[in-house]
Amino acid sequence: MKKRQVVVKQRKSSYTTTSSSSNIRYVECQKNHAANIGGYAVDGCREFMAGGGGDALTCAACGCHRNFHRREVETEVVCEYSPPT
C-alpha cells in the first residue's frame, strides 16, 4: 500500500510542490525461539507473508506475529520548483 502526500506552498514569488511516498515491507523474522533457555535462535523466515483468512497479522511461513519481522520503510521525496510566469 502506497501513501502519497502532496503539499503545495504558494508564496509571492515561487511555487513549490512536494510529494512523498513510502513503501513498508516486513522482512526477516527476528523472534528469539531459545530465549526461555538463555540462548539465541531464529527460525530463518526471510519475509512476512500474511496468513489466509481473518488472521492477517500472523505470518503464514513461520507462524509469528508481524511485529517480530523487521520493518523496512522506503521513502521517496520529490520537490519540484516552477518559477512564476
UniProtKB/TrEMBL annotation:
Superkingdom, taxonomy of origin: Eukaryota
Residue ranges of domain ZF-HD dimerization-type in the record: 26-72
Keywords: Metal-binding, Zinc, Zinc-finger
Pfam family, one: ZF-HD_dimer
Record-linked PROSITE patterns: ZF_HD_DIMER (PS51523)
UniProt keyword Protease present: no
Protein name: Mini zinc finger protein 3-like
